[in-house]
Automatic annotation (TrEMBL):
The keyword Nucleotidyltransferase does not apply. One of its GO terms (cellular component) is plasma membrane. This is G-protein coupled receptor 160. Keywords: Membrane, Transmembrane, Transmembrane helix. The lineage of its organism: Eukaryota, Metazoa, Chordata, Craniata, Vertebrata. The keyword Chloroplast does not apply. It comes from the Eukaryota. InterPro entries: GPR160. The chain crosses the membrane at residues 20-39, 46-71, 91-109, 121-142, 169-189, 244-261, 281-298.
Length: 340
């Protein structure tokens, strides 16, 4: 795809630098909003550290484009714009796949260490791995990115100065495939979904704070919920409850369907977005929730719903109680003490 840097007609010339600057400022504002929901657990995973690095690189990109806008008298402004946009889009399009694989490997390793264990060494390893991936992506971009300015003719008397930019196929395929899988699983149980969502809402409303060993009030409320609210929702039969994996899929879908649907619709309608322009932190937060959800499903059989997890978006612990395997547990549930 092409990024238009300047449009010229017989009567006037329109420079697009300010539009790019405003767009990137809006992107950083949205990324800041995502960080505000994810801030407490973001340093605990490799995907979280990568998200922080993206945020910082976005600020550097804004500084670069701001310099171009503040000093338009420089004869190389369009070359700097093309260099910034082409390299940033190429680097951003290269990183998602290795980051996703490294994040999955990190989750596997932390199954044995425990997510709750704070370690400066582990954070340092995350930072080193992220820096290595950035360096390799920058080196590849330096060798293979085409930063040549092109002039194309729209129509008679109208021309544009453009440069080549890249979209992120990995993010698009990730969103599309995940949306299809989640939709297919939930459609198989579409008749029971309203009751499950109602029950999930009642479970979530009982939350008074973060799950912890000392949260006895929450456990008592769960006991009351099991005896009263379940009957009100007509879900007192075990066979009416979802399995644990379906319950966790429902938890993920309730939190991430809007983002996945937006991504899929944009792709289907042909709204191509360069990699530097997408809200990258939404994708990393979604991927983090997916990996953490899989880790929770694996660990919960042994440790129950009180596994400390680096995800501030999906309340996995509450949906553990929604499943038919664990719906009978109340205040007597054996709590996990946070040790891997």
């Amino acid at each position: 795809m092409m990024a238009v840097l300047q449009e010229e007609t017989e009567t006037c010339t329109s420079d697009m630098t300010l539009q790019y600057l405003i767009f990137l400022l809006s992107k950083v504002a949205l990324n800041t909003l995502v960080l505000s929901f994810w801030l407490s657990s973001i340093p605990k995973t490799l995907l979280g550290v990568y998200s922080i690095s993206i945020y910082l690189v976005d600020l550097l990109l804004i500084c670069s484009i701001s310099w171009v806008w503040w000093f338009p008298q420089n004869h190389h402004t369009h070359e700097v714009m093309c260099l910034s946009l082409s390299h940033s889009s190429n680097i951003y399009s290269l990183l998602p796949l290795p980051v996703l694989l490294a994040g999955a490997l990190d989750c596997v390793i932390q199954q044995h260490v425990g997510f709750s264990q704070k370690s400066l060494g582990r954070t340092a390893v995350h930072c080193a791995v992220v820096m290595l991936m950035w360096m390799l992506a920058c080196f590849y971009s330096y060798c293979y990115t085409d930063t040549e300015l092109l002039t194309i003719q729209y129509s008679e008397g109208v021309s544009a100065l453009v440069c080549s930019v890249q979209g992120s196929l990995v993010v698009s395929h990730f969103s599309l495939n995940l949306f299809i899988i989640v939709s297919f699983i939930l459609l198989l149980h579409c008749r029971k979904l309203p009751g499950w969502v109602c029950m999930a809402n009642k479970l979530t409303k009982q939350r008074t704070g973060t799950l912890s060993i000392s949260d006895l009030a929450f456990s008592r409320k769960l006991e009351k919920l099991e005896s009263g609210a379940v009957e009100e929702a007509h879900m007192n039969k075990e066979q009416d409850r979802p399995s644990l994996i379906i319950s966790l899929v429902l938890c993920f879908a309730l939190n991430w369907t809007p983002y996945l649907l937006m991504s899929v619709v944009c792709d289907l309608l042909g709204f191509a977005v360069p990699a530097y322009a997408s809200v990258n932190l939404l994708w990393t937060a979604c991927a983090n929730s997916l990996l953490v959800g899989l880790a929770f499903w694996y660990r919960s059989n042994k440790h129950g719903p009180f596994c400390p997890l680096p995800d501030d978006i999906c309340p996995w612990g509450f949906f553990w109680y929604l499943s038919r395997e664990n719906g009978q547990y109340t205040a007597s549930t054996k709590l996990y003490d946070g040790q891997g």
